[in-house]
Amino acid sequence: MYNFDFVRPATVDEALAALADEDAQPLSGGQTLIPTMKQRLNAPSALVSLLGIEALKGVKTSDGTIEIGAATTHADVAAQATGYPALAALAGGIGDPAVRNRGTIGGSLANNDPAACYPAAVLASGATVVTSGREIAADDFFDGMFTTALEQGEIITAVKFPVPQAAAYMKFEQPASRFALCGVFVAKYAEGVRVAVTGASEDGVFRWSEAEAALSATFSASALEGLSLSAEGMMTDLHGTAEYRAHLVKVLTGRAVASAS
Amino acid sequence: MPKDGIGASIKRREDPRFLTGRGRYTDDINLNGQAHVHFLRADVAHAVLNGIDTSAAAAMPGVLRIFTAADFSGVGGLPCGWQVTDRHGQPMQEPKHPIMAEGKIRHVGEILAAVVAESVEQARDAAEAIEVDYDELPAVIDMKAACAEGAVKVHDDLTSNLCYDWGFVEENKAAVDEAFASAAHVTTLELVNNRLVANPMEPRVAIGDYALHDDSSTLYTTSQNPHVIRLLMGAFVLGIPEHKLRVVAPDVGGGFGTKIFHYAEEAFCTFAAKQLRRPVKWTSTRSEAFISDAHGRDHVTKIELALDSEHNFIALRTDTYANMGAYLSTFAPSVPTWLHGTLMAGNYRTPLIYVNVKAVFTNTVPVDAYRGAGRPEATFQLERVVDKAARELALDPAELRRQNFIRKDQFPYATPVAVEYDTGDYEATLDKALAMSDYAGFDARRQESEARGKLRGIGLSHYIEACGIAPSNLVGQLGARAGLYESATVRVNATGGIVVMTGSHSHGQGHETSFPQVIAEMIGIAPDQVEIVHGDTANTPMGMGTYGSRSIAVGGSAMVRATEKIIAKAKKIAAHLMEAAEADIELKDGAFTVAGTDKSVAWGDVTLAAYVPHNYPLDEIEPGLEETAFYDPANFTYPSGCYICEVEVDPDTGRVEVQSFTAADDFGNVINPMIVAGQVHGGVGQGIGQALLENCVYDGDGQLLSASYMDYAMPRARDLPMIAVDHSCCTPCTHNPLGVKGCGEAGAIGSPPALVNAVVDALHRAGKEVSHIDMPLSPARVWAAMNG
Ligand SMILES: Cc1cc2nc3c(=O)[nH]c(=O)nc-3n(C[C@H](O)[C@H](O)[C@H](O)COP(=O)(O)OP(=O)(O)OC[C@H]3O[C@@H](n4cnc5c(N)ncnc54)[C@H](O)[C@@H]3O)c2cc1C
Prior knowledge:
Helix content of chain A: 25-40%
Number of helices of chain A: 10
Strand content of chain B: 15-25%
Largest interface: A-B, 18 and 25 residues
CATH superfamily of the largest domain in chain B: Aldehyde oxidase/xanthine dehydrogenase, molybdopterin binding domain
CATH topology of the largest domain in chain A: Uridine Diphospho-n-acetylenolpyruvylglucosamine Reductase, domain 3
CATH architecture of the largest domain in chain B: 2-Layer Sandwich
Distance between the termini of chain A: 45 Å
CATH architecture of the largest domain in chain A: 2-Layer Sandwich
Strand order of the largest sheet of chain A: 4-5-8-6-7
Number of helices of chain B: 19
Number of domains of chain A: 3
Number of strands of chain A: 12
Distance between the termini of chain B: 55 Å
Largest sheet of chain B: 7 strands, mixed
Strand content of chain A: 15-25%
Radius of gyration of chain A: 18 Å
Oligomer: heterodimer
CATH class of the largest domain in chain B: Alpha Beta
Bound molecules: flavin-adenine dinucleotide
Structural class of chain A: alpha+beta
Number of domains of chain B: 3
Radius of gyration of chain B: 27 Å
Number of strands of chain B: 28
């Protein structure tokens, strides 16, 4: 690790001021950022911890929407997002207890790891990412592997999830990291079904529109029967080929539909 | 049930300190004035090293000195402890193994320079300012390509990348080929024994210390065998006589083989401490461990089994490429040869066997012994090919094995691969495992799985292994450059307590618990009267350490021999005290009695007399009660056993779940059944890890792709089923005093083929014509095999 300054502001405004320095970086749970710093792959001049900002923490439920503060840990979401069971279950399946008690939803979304779980929930729910300056629709937020619509110095403050009629997340774990080798989040709303896939594509999380159309017509695993997803653009690595991932997307989508509640 | 002697499952006395953070590991040691070293390691696999410019780095804050290969010109290379002779009678090719890269870089992770600074972070900062000038060369990674005509050479001064071409038994080759020509059936299988990273929980650490007042050096290190390190480093590398060199291996957090070897970092810290007159410490990061700890396995094999028309095994032929990596690690050449070829008979009467092994240099981290070392590789291919033969011939795999077993009345049994099994009863372990696993009831379980959409399979393996690695004269003939006896000093204190200084080393095996049980049994005192001291060359007799499941069989035997001497002397003292004939003295429950009388003296009275010899036969014996024994066994020991694994495969994803695992082992006599069960659990866990999860993968440029836990899959608790363990089938070893065989590696040896056999079985029952899947059986691989 290289030397850096550390600040722990109490308000979003103080945080934004501290982040005005181009080399400063927000620190949330540190579960991604600290390991990269230890590896000397990342060298911010200052870390601006968001964990001292009470306004960024907690789960609020109000008519049909669940709003989660950016600095809310995975463990807290798992315990408190009871109004959205599929989301709570997703949070409870991230990493291990140490990771869940430190890692946060804001950090996960800002990082946009192509194998992370939360992006699938946010995209499938058509959620809104609330930042220090604006509100960004999920469809506009994710911008390929490790890239988002966030601007320099902009921080996520909360995420607003419309609660679906039924939903489920199916995660197929990569054997080593236990991130998603492939993960599919299916959410059924009155307006239609949304299907978001993580872990599979070279472009990060994406919506599988053919499946959405089929499931919007008939919300049953059998509706997927004729569909197949092309392996083109899927990731190939030590743990699975593009063909395997494309195959898993369909299997997991079916299983998510079958278990949606 | 014995209370606390041999056979009692007493709890491990070392666990409270390990579980509550009170262990004393090498990294817990911090010496006054200690400096820290950071090693600059190669990030390319193969290159000509033109020069290293350390001038900018040397001026950085906190830097004490930067070392490169030039500083080691007067120093030897790291020695190899075993010389293999090839099939033409020639010695293996043995390249120099320098402490730091000399002229050429040969693998990612090789040390290029060492920065010693006041802090680790300063050393790391300075290392980034070192400029390395090199010209990259194409990397040699694939073993068969490395052996091809005109291949790029890892070592320019060798004739090729072939370390040796070993034939065993060379004289049998023609007869083996003839038997194949006349066989009724031949089963052929090509397979890979996947390369592994040992991953002990505690990474390696070394601290060098130099004492000016007596010109002596001390090395604290994470080693399984401190005396071996002292000998190798002192005599071959640094030229320090043993009386000026102390090696201490305190609590060690797992070794699995990779902490047997003498490493460059140990020699460096010892050397640099003397140069700088300051202690020098290195603690490996996990990332460094992946590219600097010796790796394990990495064999590519073709095995053929010939059967006659009655399904008797008539011949076996194997052809193996074994990866040595870029340099020969301490015992690397012995693993694919003498620890592998000699086990190819397995449990069977196969009369003709020929094993060919080509050991190959590649631009990868050196490969050496890893839990089982050679025997898992032998067992895997043999138990896979037998299974395949059974399937091809539509026979029950259990019954084909039974038919070909060496029968219980045939021991001692000389195999065609140079070893003599002293004892065994393979049908007993087979029947035990079949019963424990409810083999007969499998079909009902399969139907139940099928109803849930899962494929179910059952697989078994029956392994043999050779433990208690020894005897010295034999291993000497086979090329070992070391003796393989073990030592113990038993020191009885005046008030009767005992300290055993053993040459064995415990790094998870529980010696501090099980060794005292043996003495408790022999003398009749409580085990807590006995303390075990190990791991420090300054206060233990010259011993060979712990690997090859040798501790209780060889180290325990040395301790028994020393204790027998103690008892013999104590009887003389007791006879004197009771004015009786020595021949009439009996020792029982910690008291000496005169046979046929009610005369008795307590153990403590006799020990006190030994040190306060007022009333003592001084004209006959010396005062004191301390004895040393060196034990060199007559043979290896041969544990064996039957492992049965049941799996479910998800046909949609290829994911394998281990449903049950049964291990029926014959370890001979068992000192502490709970510790033995724990060793089997751990071994099976590692075996399932190899079969299902772990894989060390290089790309064609020699970059390690699985270089962290993000990509190297370690087994976790939830990957393992409850493991049913039994060691009631017992044929005691015939040639050591305890009748013990050793249990440390069996689990890792017997389990991979059982698991792979089970998965192949599941696929077959579902109508898939899959004859083999290479380990690890990841979901992607199983799915590809099903759909390929
Ligand atoms: C062992 C392990 C297993 C894991 N397994 C999984 C898994 O199964 N599934 C999964 O999805 N994830 C997994 N993770 C990742 C984990 O969920 C991380 O917590 C998460 O990706 C990052 O969250 P964090 O709060 O720790 O962020 P940090 O590490 O603190 O920050 C990550 C990045 O986001 C930026 N950032 C943080 N907060 C904000 C904000 N509010 N606004 C803007 N930028 C911000 C930081 O500057 C940094 O660049 C795992 C991590 C580990 C270590």
